[in-house]
Each structure stands twice: as structure tokens, then as C-alpha cells.
Predict the structure.
Amino acid sequence: MIRGAIHSTESFGSVDGPGVRFLIFLKGCRMRCRYCHNVDTWDPYSNDLRTADELLDQAERYRSYWGKEGGVTVSGGEPLLQIDFLLELFRKAKARGINTAIDTAGQPFTRKEPFFSKFQELMRYTDLLLMDIKHIDPVEHRKLTGQPNDNILDMFCFLSKIGRPVWIRYVLVPGITDDDGCLRKTRDFIATLKNVKKIEVLPYHSMGEYKWKELGIPYSLEGVKSPAAEQVNHAQRILRGKSDGA
């Protein structure tokens, strides 16, 4: 019996997929995003190990609140690091008629086996993916996250090919991801995809900074302020193809 390493759950998520969502946060992430607000999920170890049925039984207590579009969203951490558990969870969720979504950065994606076959099967039970584009430039992406982005962009392309719906999230960090040239390159990449249902620009915030300090990890963005509303709107216009950023 597979058990997932759980960080936490939330009963009434309203921004992590359509409708009201039951959120499951898994442990473990290989990315080291400088603005991460869930740094306490990086460590894959957890005292909270649960089966798919245990989580789904808990989720269904709130099913009456979901409406027609709600369901279960798995986040993290990085859910794809626990792909065997995720596959079992979503297979059983679909058997119960539950809408499923994954909030992922895509970092573990590879077309190598055994991951790729498992991922392809997982997509049969996945209704939506919420995916980040951290930075379109490979060098800047590695500076920002500690990881390359070629496989992440390849995952976007694969999802487009199979027609799996995606919501794209873009964190706007002043001085790092807000350059118009970078935004235009990101827009051009998004324009090649045929499965994008929504593009969200999320303003950087430092609300998770205290977690870094509690864990004794230096926070390199200390002093960086959240972008103004007009900066966010400007980025949205570019990424949605409504402005050339000039």
C-alpha cells in the first residue's frame, strides 16, 4: 500500500483550480526558488504518511461545498516527486467522480523511463495542471531556482500536444522577472501552446520569509518590495498578448 508524505491539507481552497478545492500539500521539492513561501515543504521527510483512500475520505466530507467545478488539487512541495502515490490518488479520485488538478513546477519531468510512462498514465486521470513559468531564460532560471528549465518547457509542449488543460502562473519579482524583454519571450513561448486556459500573474510577496529564518536559511530577496498593481497589470497585458511591452 502506497502512502504519501503529506505536509498539510486545506478544506476550502478558492484559487487553486476551478470552484472550491480540497488542497493536499505533499512534501519534497528539488527546486530552491528564491521567493518560495513553502520552504518548509522542501524536505521530503514527513511524520504524516497517508493512503489515497484516507485523503479522499477526508476530502469528500466537504464535497457539498465544491459545486459543479470543484474537487481536489495536489500541491507541494513538488507533487510529481511522489508520482506513484499521485497516480494511485488520482485513479481512485476519478473512480469517485472527483475533479483533479496538480499544482506543479514541472521540474521532475523527463521522457525517460519509468517516469514518462507513469506520467502519461497520470494524465489520464488529471483534469487540469497549474504550472509555473519561473523564468524563460535558462541561465536566469537556474539563478532563480537552482535548476534548469529545458525539461519544464518540454513538459509544457507535451501537455499541449496531448491537449491537457493548463493554467499558467507567473510570479512577478521586481528586478528579476519583470523585464519587458523577458515577458515578451515568455509570451512568445505561451503563444506556441494550444492548451492554455488561463494566465495568472502573481505579485511577489515576502510573507514566507519568516519560514526561512525559522529554518536558518538565508533569504536572498530581503528588502525586495512587492510590485505595484500597475506593474502586475502591465505584465499581464504583455503575457496575454495585449501589449508589446514597448
Observations:
- The two ends are 56 Å apart (CA to CA).
